[in-house]
Amino acid sequence: MSRQTKGKGTANAAKIHAVIGASGTGKSSYIKGDLLRSYDRLIIWSPLEDTDEYGRFCGGTVVRGKITELVQAVKSPAAAMVYVPRGSDAEVKKQFDQFCRIAWTMEGATVLVEELSRVTMPSWSPPAWRNLSTAGRHKGLTLIGVAQRPANIDKDFFGNCTEIRCYRVNYDNDAKVMADALGLETAYEPGPQGQAVAVKPQKQLRTLPNFHFFHKNPDLSVRRGENKSR
Question: Looking at beta carbons, which pairs linking 80-85 to residues 24 or more positions away fall under 8 Å?
């Protein structure tokens, strides 16, 4: 991943990545093997840290629940910070807004948000998250949003993504959202007696094997591939 130029405002290229897919389909191996290969500073929202183990992966400072401790970690020389929210749904959403406000101050950082569908909705997201996804490039930020259920996350995020990687999704409404976001077209595969069989975009997304994906590039082209690492 190329790094952003600090302090250049609108001269920075937007770098907003969506990583979508059901549990176990390959998201983590892509994020840890490709998207987080290099960074100036890293801050991660990790609700499932006990299994995702980002702290162990990046050797970062792990903060559980206390926003004041995250503020102190950001002020420290630590290169990577992992925040684990705690409490009720309302408390977690408040923590997420505070997390995003803190991330906004980290010029040139990479911001990774796991389980995005827990803290946004299709027609709503916290103002601080909207700032990250619509104007983060002014701060030289690289933004990575991760979700299992894309139908449940805010549309503004998808609208501003520069790259989208989608693994298998298991529900029709999620497949529809991703087919639209990727701009997938009907594919034709060999069928009985040599006749071509049409495979609709939603079916293509619902039948992907684990670690296989569709990837929308910054130039809007879409390719199908398989993770290099697992």
Answer: 80/39, 80/41, 80/42, 80/43, 80/44, 81/42, 81/43, 81/44, 82/43, 82/44, 82/46, 82/49, 82/54, 82/55, 82/58, 83/43, 83/44, 83/45, 83/46, 84/46, 84/47, 84/49, 85/45, 85/47
For residue range 159-170, what is the model confidence (pLDDT) as tens digits?
999 999 999 999
Task: Tell me the pLDDT band of 14, cut-offs 50, 70 and 90.
Answer: confident
pTM (two decimals): 0.93
3-state secondary structure the chain: CCCCCCCCHHHCCCEEEEEECCCCCCHHHHHHHHHCCCCCCEEEECCCHHHHCHHHHHCCEEEECCHHHHHHHHHCCCCEEEEECCCCHHHHHHHHHHHHHHHHCCCCCEEEECCHHHCCECCECCHHHHHHHHHHHHHCCEEEEEECCHHHCCHHHHHHCCEEEECCCCCHHHHHHHHHHHCCCCEEEECHHHCEEEECHHHHHHCCCCCEEEEECCCCCEEEEECCCC
